[in-house]
Design brief:
The chain has 150 residues and is α+β, with helices and mostly antiparallel strands. It is built from four helices and six strands. The strands form two sheets. Strands 1-4-5 form a three-stranded antiparallel β-sheet, with no helix packed on it. It has a three-stranded antiparallel β-sheet with strand order 3-2-6, with helices on one face. Helix 3 crosses helix 4.
């Protein structure tokens, strides 16, 4: 019989054949372990994707639609800006709608003047209630951005 040094598969094969046994390489055991590991990783990824999946979201809706929202907001802004020389012709207004449908936090990006920002916030607060936005059927606070021509 040959002397087997180390754990090389060549040495093990020679020793097994010399004894008249069939050689069983270690590879199938490693392959089985790798297959199990692969399956576990795939299951973990699938499970985490279910936990972090995108929720179905519905934007807040204004009674009467977007056209009515623009009309109401324009009317409120004209009331706030009685002097039309004070403001530009087009405004982009960002605001939030609460879970209960109340609009708040009205701002216009690009305006530094605090008086203008306060007037815009007041005009947004005067809007009637929205139908709130929802995520998976639960009302959430949502952000809205709209462009208004004055």
């Amino acid at each position: 019989m040959q002397s087997v040094c180390g754990s090389s598969s060549v040495g093990r094969a020679s020793a097994s054949q010399a004894e008249g046994r069939e050689f069983e390489p270690r590879l199938p055991l490693k392959k089985q372990a790798m297959n199990k590991l692969t399956i576990l990783v795939v299951l973990a990824v699938l499970h985490s994707s279910m936990l972090f999946s995108q929720k179905r979201q519905i934007a807040p809706q204004f009674p009467g639609g977007v056209a009515n929202l623009k009309e109401q907001l324009t009317r409120n802004l004209r009331r706030e800006f009685k002097d039309f020389e004070d403001h530009p012709q087009t405004l982009r207004i960002n605001f939030s709608v609460t879970e209960k449908g109340k609009s708040f936090n009205g701002t216009a990006p690009g305006f530094i003047d605090q008086k203008v920002q306060k007037k815009i916030a007041r005009a947004v607060r005067r809007l009637p209630r929205f139908k709130p936005g929802k995520a998976d059927g639960i009302a959430i606070t949502s952000d809205v951005s709209i462009e208004i021509e004055l």
